[in-house]
Amino acid sequence: MVCVGNICRSPMAEALLRARFEGRAGARVESAGVAALVGRPADESARELLAARGIDLSAHRARQLTPALITGFDLVLVMEEGHRREVEAIAPGARGRVQRLGRFGGFDVPDPYRQGRPAFERALALIERGLDDFEEKVWKVS
Q1: CA 66 to CA 60: how far, in whole Å?
Q2: What average pLDDT does range 60-88 have in this prediction?
Q3: 26-57 confidence digits (pLDDT tens)
Q4: Of 111, 72, 107, 108, which is closest to residue 90 (Cα–Cα)?
């Protein structure tokens, strides 16, 4: 899961997808940012929204996306179309494995950073919608 700072969207997406894949052999979910606020915890609004879903983000610390991290995954999901281009510029060999989370619905997940809680709620709803779409069309997780 990739966004810009790795403190809002991608940590929420990482935690939600990890919860969906919990117990599946070989499933590994991580997140990073193209311009990460390295070492910072997830934003308070992100932590609160996921806590309401029973998911604890308190251990998350932002990290920078690297070529090695990209090549270590079969699929890289990004929040915006621009992120896809940035990831492919970092690791050109990843073309085809980098997909926008809103690919099937034709949407980006806007950055809620430094905006109010409603922006986080909207981002979270879009993340869930994107994960639902991937689950239905690609993973078929029951």
Answers
A1: 18
A2: 96
A3: 778 999 999 999 999 999 999 999 999 999 99
A4: 72
Distance from the Cα of residue 78 to its chain's centroid:
6
* Verdict on whether the full-model pTM lies above 0.85: yes
Please pick, among 18, 40, 103, 111, the residue that the annotation labels catalytic. 111
Is 111 marked active-site?
Answer: yes
Q: 3, 47, 63, 84: which one is catalytic?
A: 3
- Burial (CB < 10 A; 0-12, 13-18, 19+), residue 45, is buried
Residues 6 or more apart whose CB falls under 8 angstroms from that of 110 comprise: 80, 119, 122, 123, 126
Phi, psi for 35 (deg, rounded to 5) = -140, 60
Catalytic residue among 8, 9, 63, 84: 9
Q: How confident is the model at residue 106 (pLDDT cuts 50, 70, 90)?
A: very high
For the chain, report the end-to-end CA distance as a whole number of angstroms: 21
Torsion sign, CA atoms 62, 76, 134, 83: positive
Distance (Å, whole) CA 132 – CA 109: 14
